Fold:
Amino acid sequence: MLIQWSTKVDALKLYMAQLEDKIRVEQEAREKLAITYEESLNVGVHRLQDETQLLTESPLVREISLIVAKELVKKGTNDPRVAELIRQGSRDQTLLDKVWPPTE
Structure:
């Protein structure tokens, strides 16, 4: 009886060791995945910042922004909702200028 139970215990020990190895491998894979995800996210953020910077420096985008702003100002005199959006945008821009001063 003792030999039979010893064999079963040994088999269960082997199974536990295999499970421990599988868990370790999965933990390592998860850590690598987390690092890869973080790196990919950082690359995406940097690319978005670079493209946004290029757009803000574009004379065409600035010209279009001025035209849109003039139209909004015209409509804002008659529509209180648009006027509120303009005021909100002005406050937002002031905050942005404090955080990221314009480079001109």
The two ends are 88 Å apart (CA to CA).
